[in-house]
Amino acid sequence: MLTVEKANLHYGAAQALRGISLAAEMGKITCVLGRNGVGKSSLLRAITGQHPLSAGTVTFNDVKLDGMAPYNRAKHGIGYVPQGREIFPLLSVKENLESGYAPVKRSERFIPNEIFSLFPVLQSMLGRRGGDLSGGQQQQLAIGRALVTRPKILVLDEPTEGIQPSIIKDIGRAIKYLRDSTGMAILLVEQYLDFCRELADHVYIMDRGEIVHQGAAETLDTQEARRHLTV
Question: Global pTM?
Answer without folding.
Answer: 0.92
